[in-house]
Each structure stands twice: as C-alpha cells, then as structure tokens.
Write a sequence for this structure.
C-alpha cells in the first residue's frame, strides 16, 4: 500500500538540510507522496529507508521497455484512471498486423504514414507478425518486418517457431505474445532468454490472473496483458468482453493495488473486428482512451491515422501544463533581416498551424513568439498575456530591432485592437493586421509581398 506523507517523513533524516532542493524534510515527504519528486532526490536517505520507500512509492502499474534504440518505447507506469486526475504517462502505440501472404503489400504502405503534428512525429510504431502455421514463411516475414525498422510483436505460440523468430529479432527487443495457462513456463523461459516482453492471455480473468502470478513466481515481470485474446480455442474475445477486461484489469491495478494486473495491455482490434476497417478504427479510438498500451489494426491509412494520432496526442499531454513552444525569433522560408515580421502566441497548436501556413506561402517571414502563457490568441489577450506592452517588451528585450531591418509587424487579426497601442509603443514600426483565421495567411502574405 502507498505510504502517506507523514509515513515517508518518518523515514527521512529529518535534518532539513535542503540538499534535495526543498526547504524541509516534511515538505520533501509531501512531494514524494504526491509523486512530484522521486525519493532519490534525498542524498542522505538510508539504504533501508530507500528500499521501503522504493517498494511503497512504485507505481501500481509496472513500467516496461520494448524495442531498441530509436525504436524503443516505455509502456505502463500509469497512476490514474482518468487523464484529468493527473496525467497519463506512456502513450499508446499503434501497430499493423501482417501475415506471410500480405507482408510485401502492407510493409511498404507503413512508410506512407509518417508526418509531423505539433512537433511530434506520427507513424506506425509496431508491426505485429502473426503466425499462420508455416514456420519458414513466418521467419521470412519476420526478416521483412525487421527491415522496416519498427518494434515487433511476435504473435506465435509454436515453441520452435517462437525460438527461431526470437533469435532473428533479439536485437529488436520485441514482444513475444504467446503465453497462456497451457504454455506459460516454456514461453516465459524463451522471453527471458532473449530479453523480450511476454504477452499473456487467459480464457477468464481468474485464469489470466493465476497465469500472471505463476509467471511472476518464475521471476519474470516483463509482461504485457493481451486483453483481446482468450476466447474459444484461444481466439479473440467479443468486443464487449475485451473492453470489460481492459477496464477491469486497469481498475484492479490502480484502485485495488493488485500488482499481478499491474502491467500494460495489448489489444488486437484486427482480431476483434476482422476485415472491418471502420470498426477497427472506432475500436482503436476506444482503447486509446481505455486502456490499450499497444493497439493492433489490419492496416493504417491516412483516414485512420489523422483522427487516431490526434486523439492520442490530445490525451497524452499533461492537462496541468499548456503545450508551448519556446519564445524566440523563428525565421521561416529563409527569412533574413529584410523579411517582414509577424507575431503570434506560444501555444503549440497555434504556432504550428500559423507557421505551417506561412511555409506554404513561400514568403520569407520572421515569426516572433513571445511568452503568452501557452494560451490561444484570444485567451492570452483576455488574460493579459498578449498585449501591446508584452509584444513591445519582447521586441526590446530580445534586441529584435538590432537583428531585423524591416519595420513591418503583422499581428493576429483577432487582436486587431492592439494596432494603435503597438504603433505608440513601437515608433517607426508599421503594424499590419492579418486575417482572423490561419487559412487566409497564404493569400494575405503573397499579396502583402506584392
């Protein structure tokens, strides 16, 4: 059970030395209890206290690593059921299932989904290689999947094939999605030998729990729970049962502190809704919210990716911290000291939309981003974060006039009211009001240049 602040305080040195950067040991203990700082911030904690606190403050859901190098990811480590309570920790990953007969078609298609949104790269992170009974064909498919540079999920329960596939993919640090109540010991040994995370499924929640506990008893806690498998003959569950299982497992882990259910979840939407891409997309959105860590589909097109990745990005941000870009001078389209200046807020979504439209125009622009608290244009203006004073102060404090010869400044159309005051605060500058919406920026800048 997690310790309270007073319990943690009793284990501290109680010297108020401030070496942790916090004024008192009591304040430090309260921050540790809230999860704001780690216990390792105190350099004077005894080994015995560190052991006790390490076990007590460990997240109810274990954090595991899959993949290697640039294709390595953290899963799990969650502490809340709902994002508004605090924040979700490890974003879910999207994958595509392939077989030996469709690998040559699907793998090249993956590279087409690769774009940037608000500074984050959006692409298919996982390839799920599903075994169809032919060992040689499966191993050839694994080789093709490895060449794509994605993290693999090896969906195979045949021990010989699993061993050979792991030998090929051992440097990839894949997930071996193979264990159930009938084979968990052999599959756990393989997973441990090759450093792979082990996917576990069960026919019922009780059998799944017992299987996980048995694997933990073998010393393996590098696990992922497949909430979509466990139906008749080891096939997929119904959508209703898979969703219920995902929610029940997460609640048992976080609310009841059941450590045996404290692992990330895998959901194979390709098995839950075969050959129904629209339903698979809907299921992917459902399990993005509750509570898939890896979500597998039959394919990924732009029409699927745009809503899914947008949903994921919105969900896996800290609700207490605005998405901001650093204030500064951003030259666009090779802008030099003679290019026109423009300004907007530091809210990341606004910045990337506006800068993207400016890039499309082809017109060189020096984009000035001042500290507006991470708010949108109208919100920042209403809160006093975006004003004639803040913009003029930014220009003066950052010596923009010493860097830029052009004295034209384009301001957002929604704060046209700032034009007169800016002209007073910035003598010699010409203040130009842009369109209200970013969609009009391209035409506006081209005509401005003309």
């Amino acid at each position: 059970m997690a310790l309270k602040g007073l319990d943690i305080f009793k284990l501290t040195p109680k010297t108020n030395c401030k070496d942790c950067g916090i004024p008192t040991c009591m304040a430090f203990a309260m921050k540790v209890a809230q999860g704001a700082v780690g216990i390792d911030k105190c350099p004077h904690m005894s080994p015995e206290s560190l052991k006790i606190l390490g076990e007590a403050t460990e997240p109810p859901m274990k954090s595991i690593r899959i993949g290697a190098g640039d294709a390595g990811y953290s899963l799990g480590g969650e502490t809340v059921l709902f994002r508004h309570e605090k924040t979700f920790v490890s974003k879910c990953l999207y994958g595509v299932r392939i077989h030996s007969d469709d690998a040559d078609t699907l793998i090249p298609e993956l590279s087409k989904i690769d774009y940037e949104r608000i500074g984050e790269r959006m692409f298919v992170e996982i390839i799920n290689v599903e075994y169809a009974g032919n060992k040689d064909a499966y191993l050839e498919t694994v080789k093709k999947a490895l060449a794509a540079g994605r993290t693999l999920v090896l969906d195979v329960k045949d021990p010989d094939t699993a061993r050979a596939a792991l030998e090929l993919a051992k440097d990839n640090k894949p997930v071996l999605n193979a264990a159930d109540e009938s084979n968990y010991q052999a599959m756990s040994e393989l997973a441990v030998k090759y450093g792979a995370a082990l996917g576990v499924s069960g026919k019922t929640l009780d059998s799944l729990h017992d299987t996980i506990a048995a694997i933990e008893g073998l010393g393996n806690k590098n696990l992922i729970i497949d909430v979509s498998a466990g139906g008749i003959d080891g096939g997929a569950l119904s959508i209703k049962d898979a969703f219920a299982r995902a929610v029940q497992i997460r609640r048992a882990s976080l609310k009841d502190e059941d450590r045996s259910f404290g692992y990330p979840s895998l959901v194979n939407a390709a098995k839950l809704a075969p050959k129904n891409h629209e339903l698979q997309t809907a299921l992917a959105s459902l399990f993005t919210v509750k509570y898939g860590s890896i979500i597998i589909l039959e394919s990924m097109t732009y029409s699927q990716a745009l809503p899914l990745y947008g949903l994921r990005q919105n969900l896996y941000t800290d609700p207490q911290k605005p998405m901001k870009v650093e204030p500064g001078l951003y030259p666009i389209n090779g802008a030099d000291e003679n290019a026109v200046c423009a300004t907007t807020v530091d809210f990341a979504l606004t910045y990337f939309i506006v800068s993207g439209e400016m890039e499309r125009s082809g017109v060189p622009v020096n984009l000035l981003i001042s500290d507006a608290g991470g708010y949108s244009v109208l919100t920042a203006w209403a809160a006093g974060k975006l004003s004639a004073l803040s913009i003029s102060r930014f220009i003066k404090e950052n010596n923009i006039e010493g860097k830029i010869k052009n004295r034209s400044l384009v301001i957002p159309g929604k704060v046209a009211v700032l034009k007169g005051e800016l002209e007073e605060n910035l003598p010699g500058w010409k203040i130009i009001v842009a369109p209200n919406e970013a969609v009009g920026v391209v035409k506006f800048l081209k005509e401005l240049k003309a």
The chain has a mean pLDDT of 92. The longest strand covers residues 93-98. The chain has three domains: 5-56, 63-315, 328-449. The radius of gyration is 27 Å.
